[in-house]
Design brief:
Chains A, B: Its cofactor is FAD. Chains A, B: It is an enzyme of class 1 (oxidoreductase). Chains A, B: Residues 49-226 form the FAD-binding PCMH-type domain. The structure is a homodimer of 470-residue chains. Chain A is α+β, with helices and mostly antiparallel strands and 470 residues long. Chain A contains 18 helices and 18 strands. In chain A, a hairpin with a 4-residue loop joins strand 5 (109-113) and strand 6. The longest helix of chain A has 20 residues, at 399-418. Chains A and B meet through strand 9, helix 9, strand 11, helix 10 and helix 12 of A and strand 9, helix 9, strand 11, helix 10 and helix 12 of B.
Amino acid sequence: MVVAAAKSEPALQERIVEAIESLRSLLDHKLVTNLAVREQHANITTYLPNEPADAVVFAECTEDVQAIVRICADLDVPVIPWGAGTSLEGHVNAPLGGICVDLSRMNRILAVNTDDLDCVIEPGVTRKRLNEELRDQGLFFPLDPGADASLGGMASTRCSGTNAVRYGTMKDNVLSLKVVTPAGEVLTTATRARKSSAGYDLTRLYVGAEGTLGIITEITLKLHGIPEAISAAVCPFPTVEAACNTVIATIQSGIPVARIELLDEVQVKASNAYAKLDLAETPTLFLEFHGTEANVHEQAQRFGALAAEYGGGPSVFAVKPEERSKLWQARHDAYWSALPLRPGAKAVATDVCVPISRLAECVMETKRDIVEMGLVAPIVGHVGDGNFHTTLMVDVADPDDFAKAKLYMARLIERALAMGGTCTGEHGIGQGKMKYMAAEHGGEALEAMRAIKRALDPKNIMNPGKIVAI
Amino acid sequence: MVVAAAKSEPALQERIVEAIESLRSLLDHKLVTNLAVREQHANITTYLPNEPADAVVFAECTEDVQAIVRICADLDVPVIPWGAGTSLEGHVNAPLGGICVDLSRMNRILAVNTDDLDCVIEPGVTRKRLNEELRDQGLFFPLDPGADASLGGMASTRCSGTNAVRYGTMKDNVLSLKVVTPAGEVLTTATRARKSSAGYDLTRLYVGAEGTLGIITEITLKLHGIPEAISAAVCPFPTVEAACNTVIATIQSGIPVARIELLDEVQVKASNAYAKLDLAETPTLFLEFHGTEANVHEQAQRFGALAAEYGGGPSVFAVKPEERSKLWQARHDAYWSALPLRPGAKAVATDVCVPISRLAECVMETKRDIVEMGLVAPIVGHVGDGNFHTTLMVDVADPDDFAKAKLYMARLIERALAMGGTCTGEHGIGQGKMKYMAAEHGGEALEAMRAIKRALDPKNIMNPGKIVAI
């Protein structure tokens, strides 16, 4: 009977064609099959190949998502959710083909509960837009990955960014999610209560699941009051090691820095050129302090004293909003500023995170590899969390160059794992890092993840080929 | 064939006897079967009946736990983990019988990584002992549920307590767990990195799982530096509403209070009698501020100004450690201080948590119920999170009294759910709140939880009859 069923079942490509026909009859004006749009909706940000879905559907509400998922579930057709396309590890590729669900039109802010410091939004809202809408109410959502990502994508990759050292990651800032399950049903992971002990933590299970367990269609986020005072600073150091050691001392002494970002001298030079800054081309920390006027002043003073102990400083402060914006824009443009360093090459962002006591050592060994292997790879990092990126410039058309890049990345990840760290602090697994899952987690933990995936998506239709293979 | 298998399979009680024999031959000196010890290891804290396991094994290492679980897995015998016995919802009961695994001898502190602000401990370490060991190193673990609970139990119930408003709950303070799976294998949920996006968040799945998915045998916890300055305060209010509104304003204005606890006038009276305090018998907030000297002073001033707006104050400060200890001991003894209010009755702690904008309303309606139903139920609360408890004194031997208590609890939970809250902010589901899971989560979310339980514990041997029925 099993053999007969297998024989009578149409091949995947035929089932995809059937799904597209059904979707066309149901959601015609929201369906696009032209190649340019499909390619735009697959990986466009790194060395990974572009693997487009067979169709893109622009969902406008939870019911649209349910209808799409139900059609795909009936036909065992892959469903790939898409937010803003800023992911770095091929999360939005469709290696088996299937239907891409573009959520960018689901961009309504459904509620801002000022009294509760939370809001309810659709997943296509981007972080910049959210903060524009919140500003008048004296509130903000702190997480800031640089790119103007969608909040749905940020939740799905367990994103963090420059403010995480103080405000936490998406895991800490999502209160609840509405999710369309792989069967096309809707569930809500939690209430709006600030905390709960009522059963398994479904919120944290879907945060970081990269769309492999369901599609997020609504997000309840914690918000924060805009601080009374904000002060940013740039602090130069003689060496990367001195900068890292100052970061470690800052965290250990409990100064509640809101941002503490490392740029190595290669990155500072690139940023000077790209963002028209005139910083000393030496390892540098970009910082931000949030609090009351008095408290911000006190934090900055204490940081300055620590930096001086390691030969750093003096800090240059940016208090005016436009000065701060210029500074952080330069930091966020690190990726773009690296591109002119090797015209024609692709930029590949690495993403290890280690216990902070190992940070200086990990960064120094990585820099040694970069120099010895003759690579172009400026370093930036959310160093308060022990997380840093190298923007590796790779000529993917040159097999030797590509092989060298892969060797460098493998060595970097092995180094981080050996130091008790992770292969990805915030970018996620996607396709690019599946090969490191066993080394990081071990067989039993990986088997538990597979069991969860099989239990919640038994047909393996939700973003297949990402995180775990089942 | 299914029928034959069922017929040939010995009944549960026979299998339990067989498991005890196997355990005796393997771990003889760690096995206890006398009734007094077994009853001590079942629920002793609330109105729920005491349902002892058939044997208690005092595990001394992860290998012991693996050996116990393997024997029980082979024979389909329930395994119930036990930490310090302070749980409030019957988590440690053995409704089907089985083997209780006492983890209190697994109480070693395996590593304190001062530079990384973390530590690795066994699950039987209690929070007071941990803080005693950390003090000399200038570090502390902030979570404080009142009782001297084991950290394994605190992780398993997603505990929080008085400091959570500033430092978060166990979900926020566990970096990684070692877990013995229902098959007796060992997995580690994460590295020591401060953040990671590497796959499904197994740490957060086991935190709050109440031992239903595996047994925690090692915990990596975030630590914090002991603040430079700590100041505690007691602030009286004319009404519960004024106190709640002051709490809401405090949270909204971003004052980083470390503790903000409500005691209603009934509780203040009970605490005066029990802890020999001389507080005005009116609704009162107990507070604590952490920071630098200057910052603590500033926080207290800002709070005082807000309290005055609602008719509260003046605050009385306790700066000396012994004064602070006396104050917080009185707060922690709220449960015990309620017992003399109705001698012979049992104390049942309720545990709803609502969005903070609804806190005053929820507390006021609950107080009205208490008065109208003629109940004895002082109110205490971690009100900064929207979480409050009523210590309901119930004569469980009197059916009318018990029925009235149940009606009150049901009304309280329905009220909290209707306000967007949860039936349990920090005590957990256990046996006592399973009946509210569907109302809080809805059918689809509950089905997802069941699917996870079935996937990770297919034989349903891990603490069965808690959280979800499968």
